[in-house]
Amino acid sequence: MKDLLFKTDEFIFSYRVAGILIHEGKILLQTAGNDPGYAFPGGHVAYGETHQQTLEREFLEETGLKIRVGDLKWVGEIFFPWGSKPCQQICLYYLVDTLEPEKIQAMAETALDAAGDIKASVHFHWIDLEKIPELEIYPEDAKAFLAQLDQGVKHFIYRE
Description:
By secondary structure, the protein is mainly beta. It is 11% helix and 49% strand. The two termini are 30 Å apart.
């Protein structure tokens, strides 16, 4: 399968989905490389895949968890540097639940993530929801939006 990730000489376009997994007062977040910021697990949509299929595949590959995909919560237009090129990313964030909560304790804490030709080690963390305001989280709007998950779909634009 080919990721919907396009690179030109001038820029990169990324089409990604992410999961918001909350379990027993904690949220699953990831860090990559030396970046101190936290992000939501997920990955690039592959050509011909639905968002549900992408999230189910990514969570199983990276954490070993089988999930159920719930409602769409956030639509993000995200602009950031990807190496030496500017990147424009569309990211859709969905609520997800684990189908196997008994496997959370044994889930993978580290995975190798490939985005195009870049591979990075990704580390997973269960963070207490009350600690969210203290953390650096991408996107920044997530801190406020997490408290509003029951208020429909939110749209945001983030420029790094």
